[in-house]
Amino acid sequence: MQSKLIEVDAKKDFGDKEFRFITEFRHKFPADEINIDYRSKKLIAHLKVVDVTELRKAITSLSQKHHLDKQNNPFEGLVHKIEGIKSYGLKGQKRLFVGYNKERKVKNRKKKEQKRGIHFYAADNNFKKENNSLPECFSDKIICGDSEEVLRKLPDNCIDMVFTSPPYNFGLDYTSTDDDHIWENYFNKLFAILEQCIRVTKFSGRIIINIQPLFSDYIPSHHLISNFFIKKKMIWKAEILWEKNNYNCKYTAWGSWKSPSNPYLKYTWEFLEVFVKGTLKKCGRKDDIDINSDEFKKWVTAKWSIAPERNMKEYDHPAMFPEELVERALKLFSFQNDVILDPFNGVGTTTLVARKFGRHFLGIDISEKYSHIAEQRTFSTLF
Ligand SMILES: C[S@@+](CC[C@H](N)C(=O)[O-])C[C@H]1O[C@@H](n2cnc3c(N)ncnc32)[C@H](O)[C@@H]1O
Q1: pLDDT per residue as tens digits for the range 229-271
Q2: Helix 221-231 and helix 183-200: axis angle, to 10°?
Q3: Ligand 1 centre from 305 Cα, in Å?
Q4: Which residues in the chain land under pLDDT 50?
Q5: Crossing angle (nearest 10°) for helices 16-28 and 74-83
Q6: Comparing C-alpha atoms, which of 243, 219, 223 is closest to residue 306?
Q7: What ligand 1 atom has the least distance to the C-alpha of 342?
Q8: Is the pTM of this model over 0.90?
């Protein structure tokens, strides 16, 4: 197996202590995983597979042992360069720097991507690039009202991320609205609210919709909603499968039992559709990132296994999502101090988690009762 060559300018001739460092390093790490050497004022590493956390620890402790100063320490420079390598495979805790993509079937992927073009359906969008601040009277607020009406009062491009779960039209018992509309009416109203969401989202902002289709009525809500966003020139960034693992369905519905004539399938998951306005890349301050490397590694795999909310009775709401779902989405797709909007805020799961993780927020719900609970929950919880 070949190795990946990394070079760091040592800027000086190595002396005894650096060579002793190299000797000890070689005792710690097998040469067929990582081998380091010194040649013509260069520190050289041949990399194949390495546990980067262990590498960082070893470099720090050997540097201390051999009294290498932190400033011009080429070994520090080397580990920094290795940590910065963006493409690698994973083998347990170790990063695989060679041979990890030999199974890849598509060669010259970048070139082909350039030829085909990406997200062509959103290319001719007309989105304004100037962003605005959310007026103070809407910042960190829970508002009771119809979202379409409330959102009309907001300026364009003032929200960093919308995170929401609309009513699914399944027939649930909400306090102020029916949940069993004729489908055309349901989608017309939903799209009027989502249209406002697009308008108030900043250029480079995100809209994430948690949705469960009504499989039993053959209504693919997640596809219809995605189609709406795509027609509005939003970029489809991602789809997350929220695995709820709720296999113990209370009812038995087989459709045509033991016959291919019309079997009924069962589902234990919901979807999160992620859309972005204008560009895939969202700018933000490095200091405002709050996701750690373990969370990042785990959550970029787009199947999230999270148990459904268990406290719905306590808050008297029939369709809450769990706090962990919001936490993952906020940390993965937004920065601290961003403004988060939930236009179907219910009893305030989004606004609570936004406040917990240092985001600004605006939560809107048509029900006075839910808005009251949301306010209590969001503002009285101590973090
Ligand atoms: C699926 S629930 C959201 C629950 C929320 N994610 C939580 O964890 O509490 C949908 C919410 O939309 C609200 N709603 C329905 N129509 C609305 C409208 N036109 N404007 C604002 N809220 C509305 C309902 O009152 C309901 O609380």
Answers
A1: 999 999 999 999 999 988 655 556 778 888 999 998 888 999 9
A2: 40
A3: 23
A4: none
A5: 40
A6: 243
A7: 6
A8: no
